[in-house]
Amino acid sequence: xxxxxxxxxxxxxxxxxxxxxxxxxxxxxxxxxxxxxxxxxxxxxxxxxxxxxxxxxxxxxxxxxxxxxxxxxxxxxxxxxxxxxxxxxxxxxxxxxxxxxxxxxxxxxxxxxxxxxxxxxxxxxxxxxxxxxxxxxxxxxxxxxxxxxxxxxxxxxxxxxxxxxxxxxxxxxxxxxxxxxxxxxxxxxxxxxxxxxxxxxxxxxxxxxxxxxxxxxxxxxxxxxxxxxxxxxxxxxx
Length: 238
Hints:
globular; Four Helix Bundle (Hemerythrin (Met), subunit A)
């Protein structure tokens, strides 16, 4: 494959950083909601719903595009790690389904018990997700750069974006850009239709800033490195 046509996987780190920051903050966000505070539970519940849709869209596009191509094109020794990654997706999906159900119960009746049950699910989910993303960065992204073209990689990202509800796209875009490398931001923007670039570049950060004010009480929430260091320091045993 011509090196010029190979996949550029740097945008995956950008997405993973957003997931580490946002999902990593969920256990504390939920635990800080006072029992009986219906309004705050709805605000955090809406935030959880957006993150869940983003994560599902991201993993579903990998299931459809990435794993089949690596299994088809890679040598036999590639298969074990690809199967591990697909299995991790299923485990994360099970935890995400549990989170959806527990979030619905908490939103309907934000008691101390329902709050702690939800926070416990997110404790498990973020550690499973972080383990998956670290392994993907170490083992899968080099394989993707070797066996996928730039066009195929872009098609996977494009499908993920289309699966996000239109009204949430500016927020998700701003959420993803918050800690991104400027060079990667420019590369991502260059892949968008011209008419969408200026709109998303303006509306995305604005949407994320307003959303963060509601969720975190600040337009500049704690960054992913600090969030994950705190979680790893108090890693639970399951």
